[in-house]
Amino acid sequence: MPGPTFLRDINEARVLRLLKEKGVLSRAELARYLGSTRSTATLVSNDLIKEGLIMSTGEVFVTQQTGRPGAALKLRPEGAFFLGVELGAKEIHLVLINLAGAIIYRETVAHRSTKPDVVCQELLALVRRVWSKRLKNSDRLRGVGVAVSALLNNQGVIRKAPTLGWHDFDLKQGLLSKFPLPAFAENDANAAALAELSFAGRVGYSDLCVIHLDLGAGAGIISDRRLVRGYSGLAGEIGHLCVDPAKSRRDEELGPLETHLGRNQLLATFHRAGGKAKDLAGLLDDLKRNESIARKTVESWGRWLALTISNLADFANPKLIVLVGPLSELYPFVEKDVRQRLAERKFPTVEGLEIEVSALGRDCTALGGAALVFNSVFSVPDASFLDDLA
What is the pTM of this model? Predict the structure, then answer.
């Protein structure tokens, strides 16, 4: 039988989530959504006001069911803060968000070295500096989440990180345990999926997938609004799907599929065909000018993207697929062909499938890191035996 403290925590989490999703509500509306008495809703909301997590707007909110006026409540943006970090191949990208999910600061720092101990020291120093200068060491900073381009298992060990050159590095001991506040880590594609679910207005989407497109390719899979991590935390490594058994290798850095989808292969193909642009930005400029070599190169890349989307739809059956990462900018140039190829399959898993480029842009993966901490505020604790908020 749950005790009063446990029940209070459940009600507080549900009130916070309601205000996150609905924006502004009265105590009467909170009671209606919670299925509780108004006195219970008042007690819970008053506690949250004392904790500094919610506030009165000073305006009157008219309850839909009865038409009765009441004080309007909303989340207090300064009630809590969260740090999110994308640990990439060449740089660290950090965002600081408030309880409303708004980015209030961002910073990008290039690696001095890709050695694990040096990168970890840089990241620790960056977090301490931002916490000190931007928040004056406020105890309202709830923690930091790190999204890393790597195969990261459930024990916090990076099994492989080809873009960083790390193998079997204990990120939990080498980094997370040294933070002066709660710290968590996640694979970059999984983090991006959490960012889409948490900050991209995906209310009503319970099943979606993210495809992260950069040097490699990975997927973050959300099923029934929960992240699919798999037995050891390595689910979603679609870049390592075998596309030609005759060319399979015992050990691989980049996977067989991502050698067709990744940035380096894309640029190498472009250059072999006679393309002059040196980098992805230059290739995009050529595309915008409808330069033929760039167009044909990206059309070929788009065929691999269509295959990837089709396969992901078959085994995850999402309502929505979101493309993130630098190469997602190529999608508008191949969208028509990708959609046509999916339609020609005439298979139920791709019928009505929505495909979008993330609106979160450069911040998407770092926001996913922040979501690792942010979502804990709105989560009902150990309440699987209870009906959660719809």
Answer: 0.89
